[in-house]
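lol forgot to send this yesterday, sorry. struct tokens for the thing we talked abt
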């Protein structure tokens, strides 16, 4: 009988060890693959508030330094666009002059470059692409006068503010200051 009791005792011990092993295996299988101890994982769950604030501060500083330069380039490019458009309008006016023998009057305006005026029998237009007179880059119409104090005509953009005068980006852009009617003044 001793052997029977020893056998039962030995089987009970092995059963306890097997149960313990099963518990450990079931805990491992419930845990996602590649993770470590759950207490060590809690500290790696995300960013702290301080880290997020530091990143936002750095982004703010970069935008504070770079933003004004980008906006300045945008403003300068609008001025350059206005200069190029005025030069293009001046070239179209020169072609009109070659065909008709005179520049459009102030009353006819720049519209004479895309629509034939009644008094222009030799008109060979339209002299502008898209059959439309463009507005300046700020959405205001160009001011046209003919004759002018500064030559046979003048084309003016009042700049970003749309009013006469101004400084910087709001300064007036005048055809006679960028070489527009100076070419035509000798005619």
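and heres what i got for the seq, position by position
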């Amino acid at each position: 009988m001793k052997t029977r009791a020893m056998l039962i005792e030995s089987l009970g011990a092995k059963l306890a060890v097997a149960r313990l092993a099963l518990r450990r295996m079931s805990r491992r299988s419930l845990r996602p693959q590649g993770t470590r101890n759950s207490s060590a994982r809690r500290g790696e769950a995300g960013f702290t508030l301080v880290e997020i604030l530091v990143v936002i501060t750095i982004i703010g500083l970069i935008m504070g330094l770079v933003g004004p330069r980008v906006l300045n380039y945008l403003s300068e490019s609008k001025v350059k666009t206005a200069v190029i458009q005025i030069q293009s309008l001046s070239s179209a006016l020169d072609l009109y002059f070659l065909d008709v023998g005179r520049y459009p009057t102030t009353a006819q305006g720049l519209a004479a470059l895309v629509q034939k005026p009644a008094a222009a029998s030799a008109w060979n237009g339209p002299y502008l692409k898209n059959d439309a007179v463009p507005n300046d880059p700020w959405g205001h119409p160009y001011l046209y006068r003919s004759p002018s104090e500064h030559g046979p005509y003048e084309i003016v953009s009042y700049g970003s503010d749309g009013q006469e005068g101004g400084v910087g980006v709001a300064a007036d852009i005048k055809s006679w200051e960028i070489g527009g009617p100076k070419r035509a003044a000798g005619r």
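Residues 77-184 form a domain with the Glycoprotein, Type 4 Pilin fold (CATH 3.30.700.10). anyway ping me if u want another try
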